[in-house]
Amino acid sequence: MILGNFCIRGLISLLALADFAITTSALKHRDEAAAPRLKNWGVVLFCAFDGQDIFGPLDALQLLAFQRQMNLYLIAETLDPVTSEPASPAMNSKNSSFWPIILPTHTFANAPELDVLFVPGGAGTRAPDVKSITDFIADRYPSLEYLITVCTGAGLAAKAGVLDGRRATTNKSAWATVTAWGPNVDWVRQARWVVDGNIWTSAGVTAGLDLTFAFMTEMFGYEQSNRIAALMEYIPNRNSSNDPFGASLVP
C-alpha cells in the first residue's frame, strides 16, 4: 500500500513536471508564433504629447526589434514636425524651448495597415479639436490586432468610441477630466494597466512602460520580456492591481 501510494505520488509529480516543461516551452516559443501577426506598429502623434508615454515603450520595443522584424510608423495629421511644446503660452510661462521634436513618417490619410497602434497622452489630448485623431483611431481600430493607450491617451480612445462598454484606466491625476470623455466606459481606478479584449490601457506616464512589459510577456513570453528588462536595468511592476497612485491622486 505504501509502495502504491509512493508510485501514485511519483506519477503525479512526473505529470506536474511534464506540464511545467510544456508550459515553459510554450512561453519561450510564444514569440515565434506571435511574430508574424505583430509586425507593423504605429504611434499616434500630436502636439503637446508626453515624451515618456512614447519613448518609454519604444525604448523597450526597439530592443525586441533586434530579435524579429518590426516596422515602426509615426503617424500624425500632417508631415509637419510634432513637438511636445505646450500649445498654450500660459503653460510655458518661462518661455522654455526644452521640447523634443518628432518627424512623422505618415499621415492619418496614408498610414499603412497596422497590427498594433499606440496612443500616448499629454496636454495635447485636451486640445479643443482632436477630431482628426479620434476619427483615425475609430477608423483603424477594427483592423488592429491590438490597441494600446498610455496615460490620457485613453481619453482619445474614449472619444473615438472604441472603449464603450469596456474596462479601462488612465492617469489618476487627470482622472476627472478623462473619465468625463467616456461616460460609457467602465473606468478602473485601482489599476496600473487594464486589459479588455484586444485593448490595453495604462495609468499615467510611467505606467505605460509597465504595460509594455506585460504586453511583451503576454505576446512573446516571459524570457524575452525579462531579458529586455535586464538590459534596461528596469524592474517592471508585474501586478496590474499594484497601483499606489490609484487612491492618492483621484479627486
Write a compact overview of the structure shown.
By secondary structure, the chain is an alpha/beta fold.
Fold and architecture overview:
This is DJ-1/PfpI family protein. Keywords: Signal. The chain has one domain: 3-Layer(aba) Sandwich (Rossmann fold). About 40% of the residues lie in helices and about 15% in strands. The protein has about 250 residues and is an alpha/beta fold.
Core attributes:
251 residues; alpha/beta; 7-stranded mixed β-sheet; two-stranded antiparallel sheet; 8 helices; 40% helix; INH-QAR; signal; Class_I_gatase-like; DJ-1/PfpI family protein; DJ-1/PfpI
Largest pleated sheet: 7 strands, mixed
Rounded mean pLDDT score: 89
How many individual β-strands? 11
Number of helices: 8
How far apart the termini lie comes to 65 Å
Coarse shape: globular
Series of secondary-structure elements, N-terminal to C-terminal: HEHEEEEEHEHEHEEEHHH
- Report the sheet-strand fraction: 5-15%
Q: CATH fold name, please?
A: Rossmann fold
**Count of discrete structural domains:** 1
Structural class: alpha/beta
Radius of gyration, in Å, reads: 21 Å
InterPro entries: Class_I_gatase-like, DJ-1/PfpI, INH-QAR
Protein name: DJ-1/PfpI family protein
Pfam families: DJ-1_PfpI
Keywords: Signal
Write the layout of secondary structure elements.
Blueprint: H1 2-34, E1 40-44, H2 51-64, E2 71-76, E3 82-83, E4 101-102, E5 106-107, E6 116-119, H3 131-140, E7 146-149, H4 153-160, E8 167-168, H5 175-180, E9 186-187, E10 193-196, E11 199-202, H6 207-220, H7 222-232, H8 245-248
